[in-house]
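Inputs:
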Amino acid sequence: MSVLLFTIIVLLGAFVAGLVGSLTGLGGGVIIIPLLTLVLGVDIHYAIGASIISVIATSSGSAAAYVKEGITNIRIGMFLEIATTISAIIGAVITVFINPSYIAIIFGVILLFSAIMMVRKKVDHSDNDTSGKLAVFLKLNGSYPTDKGMQNYAVHNVAGGFFMMFVAGIISGLLGIGSGALKVIAMDNIMRIPFKVSTTTSNFMMGVTAAASAIVYLHRGQIDPGIAMPVALGVLTGATVGSKILVKTKTDKLKIIFAVVVAFLALQMIYNGLTGKL
Amino acid sequence: MSKEKNFFADRDIQIILGTLLRVGVIASMSVILIGGLVYLGSNHSEIVNYSQFDSVKSGFSAVSDIFIGLGDLKGSAIIQFGVLLLIFTPIMRVVFSIFSFLIERDYLYVLIGAFVLCVILFSLSNKLVG
């Protein structure tokens, strides 16, 4: 395949990944990695390097808008980044020592899990009860704008959330994805932070987490300019278009269709990993 | 009263942070686009070969190499420079947050931010790559 044809295919694929990713809340890597490895026969280590670039691009792009609205809790983000950056580097360092087949299997399992998380009915656990001592000490409790004015919220189980973020960071560094589904568990379910705050804050954190592992990948030569270029341009364009149409679209049906596609890709990755084709 | 004041300080910081992120993304994407056009201009008919990862083969994996390649106006070096700009955008965000916490005299978060920055700077060390 010629460089020109390869660039066009990846550009289109990345555009779709960015578009669907911003409509469903799933990161671009979920589509990028299967496209590169299963369809184009790219080694999974290059795919991981390209995917992390798409994570940084979409995270910084969308965080710019959210931060201005004042929903993101910068203190929560900064504190939890201690866990995610350390673990992302650990994940990025160990990724080459693990058999690529195992990486494909782990990736498939995380994909399946993300698909389930996406269609699962969300329950808002947030409240304004007394929070833990650690949350008060770290000044994590905050407020965010809603239709009815500023809404206060209390943060719980900081230690549990911190530990879960450590797991999310390892997975992120290992696979080159944002591991948004794991971050949601940490923030929504364990720390009981309101949805709007947890999604925007996790998005805000993803860029920093990804940057830490991206540097390790760059040094190792996993970020190839020929792949990174169409991935970065395509994903960001797609995500920008997606966020523009998000306001007018009902995404419920789209999420179910996308979950089926992701589950299919996940099984493909697991199958290829088990049979040693990846 | 003091709570009011903090709120406004936080709002200002959020607006500046948002602008910083946007400028970083636009700048890096522009550089990657220019590099991409240069790269396609000279390499479009080559045959791609990414089937086997080879850490020795890939060029421009060190920051110094990227700058040398930039001098020669090589497309792939320009793309990698754009990638570097993209990677440094969230890192600059951390640096900026530390300064804003310093202005707010929130020393606990100056410390937390500095720690996160140190972790990232540690990843810049080549020793991590075996």
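The beta strands of chain A are 142-146, 149-153. Flag for discussion at group meeting.
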